[in-house]
Amino acid sequence: MKALIFGGGKIARGFIGHLLHLSGATIVFVDVNAALIEAMRRRGKYRVHIMGAAHKSIDISGFRGYELSDVQAIAGEWAEADMAFTAVGGKNLSALGQVLAAAFCKRCDLAPWVRPFNIVTCENWKEPACLLAEAIRSRLPSEYEGLFDRWVGVTEAVVMRSAVEPTEDMLADDPLCVNVQDFWDLPVDRDRWKGGLPAIEGVRFIEQFAGFLERKFYTYNAANGTVSYLGYLRKHRYICEAASDPEIMEVLDCVYEETSRALALKHNVQLQEQLRFADSSKKKLQDSNIIDYVERNARDPIRKLGPHDRLVGSARLVQASGAAPEGLAVAIAAALFYDEPTDSGAIELKALRESAGIDAILRDVCSIAEDDPLALLIKNKVEWLRTKRWIQ
Ligand SMILES: NC(=O)C1=CN([C@@H]2O[C@H](COP(=O)(O)OP(=O)(O)OC[C@H]3O[C@@H](n4cnc5c(N)ncnc54)[C@H](O)[C@@H]3O)[C@@H](O)[C@H]2O)C=CC1
Ligand SMILES: O=P(O)(O)OC[C@H]1O[C@](O)(CO)[C@@H](O)[C@@H]1O
């Protein structure tokens, strides 16, 4: 078995590469970051540290690496590969699609198709498989479209292992190592997969997958958004500390309650089952074996305040179910005040807030109009945060 992994970051190395290595696959990483690829080639191995279960940690070696600009090499590897995964960040899928379209044409010219090829997105994003498939297909010359439709499946996975930057000491020893959660399951949408199913450690093909990614995103990520933005205001460094702060837990429980009702309704899942799912998210956030940082989870607030992302997207879902997203509105209000000076997105957000005001952020970043009930609710929660002195 041979697999391409687009992205060489934390999830690519610390989860997808790990599972594929355990399955005996030949692994080819492709990343836009030339320095990262150079380091991967030079060092030839990296360590995956399993947090809280050091005896399961492992060295991964025997992989190859290419820069994304090397379309010819990607096409050559593709011609011999069985599947590909992406872990590049949802906002980069469209740019990746452009390269994959060019590589696909070259790959078609290199060798005839004899079996289907699947690309699995591993991204916290709204409908990433559709997005990537369209980003590739829309750039294909018409004579290649039929081949793409016939031979390539684009499907998606739900990534629930956390992969975290190691400490500076660990990086000094191995700059490519990754700290990961002791979690091994990778659910993949079976219905979008073309052809026979491979046996890959941890990969679980699920039928009627629709909705699972949304449930995960608006449960796990809505919760870690809530915990991290409130955690920042409450000056917590670690996620597990913030998630165990009684004042934050009150808001967190409210978020779980409102998102669970809306998700159960939308996806026709028993409320009790969805609440159990929410509970597993809470346990993960509070797990002190997982050394994860408020800063990492709050990072890139402009993306995370986007209209379909974890906070506003889930608030919209709650509104659509006929309820008011009280807890999520607190989390969004807190995110508007994520003023971390080391985060370029946070600096931009603060400058926008100070120059144009909250209404402008809600309109331009979150796509929430000034007279939308959600805007009014969020602004009420901003005042509430002020009365609690969590913001000035
Ligand atoms: N780190 C985590 O705990 C989790 C991450 N995820 C998702 O996994 C995805 C990857 O996240 P991380 O690995 O944490 O990020 P990361 O920042 O560690 O890695 C992303 C990598 O993608 C590369 N990249 C960007 N654009 C590219 C392109 N067009 N082609 C090839 N490579 C490109 C970057 O250079 C970087 O090396 C994201 O969608 C994230 O939401 C999901 C669950 C958990
Ligand atoms: O970069 P993003 O989108 O915050 O995704 C990473 C997050 O997803 C999670 O796995 C939550 O499910 C977190 O551990 C992690 O912070």
UniProtKB/TrEMBL annotation:
Keyword annotations: Membrane, NAD, Oxidoreductase, Transmembrane, Transmembrane helix
A single Gene Ontology CC term: cytosol
Transmembrane segment boundaries: 15-37
Record GO terms (molecular function): mannitol-1-phosphate 5-dehydrogenase activity
Superkingdom, taxonomy of origin: Bacteria
Reactions mediated catalytically: D-mannitol 1-phosphate + NAD(+) = beta-D-fructose 6-phosphate + NADH + H(+)
SUPFAM superfamilies with a match to the protein in the record: 6-phosphogluconate dehydrogenase C-terminal domain-like, NAD(P)-binding Rossmann-fold domains
Positions of the Mannitol dehydrogenase N-terminal domain: 1-202
Ranges of residues in domain Mannitol dehydrogenase C-terminal: 211-349
InterPro entries reported in the protein's UniProt record: 6-PGluconate_DH-like_C_sf, 6PGD_dom2, Mannitol_DH_C, Mannitol_DH_N, NAD(P)-bd_dom_sf
Pfam families on file: Mannitol_dh, Mannitol_dh_C
A GO BP annotation: mannitol catabolic process
Full protein name: Mannitol-1-phosphate 5-dehydrogenase
Organism: Paenibacillus montanisoli
Lineage: Bacteria, Bacillati, Bacillota, Bacilli, Bacillales
